[in-house]
Specification:
Strand 3 and strand 4 form a beta hairpin. With 167 residues, the chain is an alpha+beta fold. Helices cover 46% and strands 13% of the residues. Helix 1 packs across helix 2. The radius of gyration is 18 Å and the shape is elongated. The strands form two sheets. The chain has a two-stranded parallel sheet. It has a two-stranded antiparallel sheet with strand order 3-4.
Length: 167
């Protein structure tokens, strides 16, 4: 929300859940802002003062501040450049490992899907599931994994299934 600073944007889900508990959540908000890689000083900035990547981190913090059991992310990094996208992929993976939150991540980027997933559902243009692919890569993901033969093979396999689903 452009009229709210970072702190207040992240606080919004807590306000909606319990409008009376305004200040009791400040520590949680600051911790969540830090968790997504923003500095505490960023809490007073407004969306117009943030880069695209920082705005995405605020959105992630807003989703995480309530400690959800599940998160649904619909192409959250589509408008970002590749380097920032990979950095945020790593951040999402680290959050998943730390919090064990179930994430459903929608993307058209096959390499991103393979990197973040242990399971990929390939759908056709009508939303029918055409393939259910188990990704057998190490649980701990790091940037070096993207150059491994196992990763590249998984990307090729999922790409092949995706091509087949389009016909």
């Amino acid at each position: 929300m452009p009229w709210r600073n970072v702190h207040d944007n992240v606080r919004l889900p807590l306000e909606l859940r319990d409008p009376v508990a305004e200040n009791s959540s400040d520590t949680t908000i600051i911790e969540t802002i830090r968790q997504v890689g923003l500095a505490e000083a960023d809490k007073d900035k407004f969306p117009r003062e943030l880069s695209g990547g920082m705005r995405m981190r605020v959105s992630m913090a807003r989703a995480l501040v309530t400690n959800p059991d599940m998160m649904f992310m619909d192409e959250p990094f589509a408008a970002l450049d590749e380097l920032l996208r990979q950095q945020l992929n790593q951040l999402i993976h680290e959050i998943w490992r730390q919090q064990q939150v179930t994430m459903m991540f929608v993307t058209h980027n096959v390499s991103e899907a393979v990197y973040l997933s242990d399971r990929i559902l390939v759908m056709n243009r009508y939303g029918d599931i055409k393939q259910d692919v188990s990704i057998k890569l190490p649980e701990e993901r790091n940037p070096e994994l993207r150059a491994s033969s196992e990763y590249l093979q998984a990307v090729a396999e999922v790409s092949s299934f995706l091509q087949e689903s389009l016909v």
